[in-house]
From TrEMBL:
Gene3D superfamilies assigned to the protein according to its UniProt record, in alphabetical order: NAD(P)-binding Rossmann-like Domain
Name the UniProt record assigns to this protein: NAD(P)-binding domain-containing protein
Organism ancestry: Bacteria, Pseudomonadati, Pseudomonadota, Gammaproteobacteria, Lysobacterales
Keywords attached to this entry: Oxidoreductase
PANTHER family listed in its UniProt record: DUDULIN-RELATED, F420-DEPENDENT NADP REDUCTASE
Entry superkingdom: Bacteria
Pyrroline-5-carboxylate reductase catalytic N-terminal domain span: 3-91
Amino acid sequence: MSYAIIGFGSIGQALAGAFARNNIEVTVASRRPPEALLPQAQAIGPKVIPRTLQEAAKADVIILAVLFEGHRDVAKALPDWQGKTIIDAMNTNDPVEDLDGLPSTSFAARAFPGARFVKGFNHLLARTLATDPNVEGGHRVVFLSSDDEAAAAQVADLAKRLGFAPVYLGKLDEGGTLVQARGKTWGPLIFQDLFKKEP
């Protein structure tokens, strides 16, 4: 299984740190050329590999950590996203009517034909996401939602490997709305920093 993070701002770097802590190789890419990302990637860890957007798009599991308005540009990297699992870590303040009344993840998914979309890793602040999720006998919670249960299970497994406690909220039009902006209001679980204790 290969992994990529597209978007190398504060969220992308925080997630890259989680991969590095757990010795899991991850490709990182952005609109900037790979060499521009190299110093920061090397500072995070040797398993964080900068590549082009087109190379990153070849990964099996891709975390979208770009600004929401940039997702269509990423989608142009491939004509068909069949077989890819995409984790939507983006947030948007766009009014619901600008998203055709859809959850933001469902709206973004339209640009990636064939991909299986999972909302995840978007509800935490970057500085929180960057810290070790293993704290005092528990694990920091990440909320996941998807219309594809198999994809959600795949992302839950990755979250566990990264040290998080995944909590599945259900389908995008149910659980997804709990962790996204709706116009000028935020879902009730946004920025909630919760932990799950070991049984």
